[in-house]
Design goal:
It is a single chain. By secondary structure, the chain is α/β, with parallel strands linked by helices. The chain is 37% helix and 25% strand. It is built from eleven helices and 18 strands. It has helices at 5-9, 54-65, 108-114, 151-167, 195-207, 225-237, 263-270, 288-292, 300-307, 311-372, 374-379; strands at 34-36, 39-41, 44-46, 49-51, 71-81, 88-94, 101-107, 123-133, 138-148, 185-190, 213-217, 242-249, 276-280, 295-296, 384-387, 390-391, 403-408, 411-416. Strands 5-6-7-9-8 form a five-stranded mixed barrel. Helix 5 links the parallel strand 10 and strand 11. The N and C termini lie far apart (170 Å).
Length: 418
């Protein structure tokens, strides 16, 4: 067991002959020589006074400090300094309540082996022993080990869990689903008589009065909260018409919101069969369940606005749609009426046009027939000669004295071959 503080630091110069007893008469040599840790400290004679040099005094204090045991000291890390060429890491421990400070030094190899990734402002427990740098009489703590404490410890654990779940893909953006436009049933996981519950319900009722909401009241703070929220979420997901779930809690301290960074709850949110909206704490709070949710709302009121539409906006949208359909129907009717009028006009003109086209075609055929008719040839001065009913195509086909029948354009007459 670590000795009480009063025993560790009570009478720090005990055993020295440097005024530890009652005041001595000036010039007295009593106690002018002392022993600290087995090291003999020799004074210097200055007339009738025995004094110590600064180096001797510092050396004596340093040697005495080595007799103190190792202790744990709690404080806030400030002025953390390290360099690649330094073999020692330096920082200051600060008492946030009283502002007292203590310089701390630790070997770089030991510091790096702890893998704490410390930053200014974190609270830690440092295990070590005091030492004095005698050249400048600087008191500091030689750290042997460092552990995060309180909030710092939780932050480190959450950071490790965050990296683990991110590596599994639970926070990937492509996993997030869009929220339904008109949910049939909204699930709400919240605390009993919580302001967050009232904010969500009043927002949903104001925006979309027909909405159906099922509230699962559960613990939202304390060691039982994470498991209870997981069970409430699982029970809601068994409802047949559930389309979306809201997980909400009002503001609180960092410790109050820790259940919403529990690994069980984060995995339950990530694997929920319906989209999940989280609204936990204030806008600056980001528990791990927010990273796994499909949508993160900054406040419970914002969550209520996200899961249901505004009925007034819906009615306005429906009115705009109705007006648009009406205008579209009128335009379609007018366009079809014009098309029918044009069709009717074409149908009215079609028989006349067809007759004209047929008449023109017949005229062209008649003209060709007239051009090819034998009578047209006869009209140009030609004649058709027949002998005994046969056409005479050659002079050798007839003999002198044979009777001939000659047909011309306006009649026929007989003839005889000479």
């Amino acid at each position: 067991m670590t000795p009480p503080v009063r025993e560790l630091f009570g009478n720090p110069l005990g055993g020295w002959g440097l005024g530890t007893g009652p005041p001595r008469r000036r010039g007295s040599n009593h106690g002018a020589r002392g022993i600290l840790g087995g090291v003999k400290i020799e004074p210097i004679a200055r007339g009738d006074r025995k004094v110590y040099s600064v180096a001797a005094f510092n050396r004596g204090v340093r040697d005495w400090l080595t007799r103190l045991p190792t202790v744990w000291i709690e404080g806030e890390v400030t002025e953390l300094r390290r360099h690649v060429n330094w073999q020692t890491v330096f920082f200051t421990l600060k008492d946030p309540a009283e502002g007292a400070c203590l310089a701390v030094a630790m070997g770089r190899g030991q510091f790096d082996a702890l893998r704490l990734d410390l930053a200014d402002g974190e609270r830690v427990h440092v295990f070590g022993r005091p030492e004095l740098f005698e050249q400048r009489a600087d008191l500091r703590l030689r750290a042997l080990s460092i552990e995060r404490f309180g909030l710092g410890d939780h932050l480190a654990a959450l950071e490790r869990l965050k990296r683990k779940l991110a590596a599994e893909g639970l926070f990937a953006a492509e996993r997030r689903r869009s929220l339904p436009r008109l949910p049939r049933l909204v699930g709400l996981v919240t605390g009993n008589d919580a302001a967050a519950k009232r904010d969500v319900l009043s927002t949903i009722a104001d925006r979309f009065p027909p909405a159906r909401v099922v509230v699962a009241e559960t613990y939202v703070q304390g060691p039982r909260a994470a498991g209870a929220i997981v069970e409430a979420l699982r029970a809601l997901c068994e409802l047949p018409e559930l389309d979306v779930v809201v997980v909400t809690r009002g503001g609180g301290s960092f410790e109050d919101l820790l259940p919403f960074s529990d690994e069980r709850l984060v995995r339950a949110v990530a694997t929920c069969p319906v989209p999940v909206v989280t609204a936990v704490g204030h806008e600056q709070d980001t528990p791990l369940c927010d990273l796994a949710a499909d949508v993160r709302a900054s406040t419970p009121t914002a969550a209520g606005r996200l899961v249901v539409p505004d009925v007034r906006e819906l009615l306005q949208s429906l009115e705009r749609g109705r007006n648009g359909l009406e205008r579209g129907a009128r335009r379609t009717f007018e366009r079809e009426r014009q098309r029918l009028d044009a069709t009717q006009e074409r149908l009215t003109r079609a028989p006349v046009l067809a007759l004209e086209r047929k008449r023109a075609a017949l005229d062209q055929v008649a003209a060709r027939l007239r051009t090819l008719s034998p009578r047209s040839t006869l009209a140009r001065g030609y004649a058709i000669v027949r002998s005994r009913g046969n056409l005479v195509r050659s002079a050798t086909a007839v003999e002198p004295g044979d009777p001939l029948q000659v047909e011309v354009a306006d009649g026929a007459f007989g003839a005889r071959v000479e």
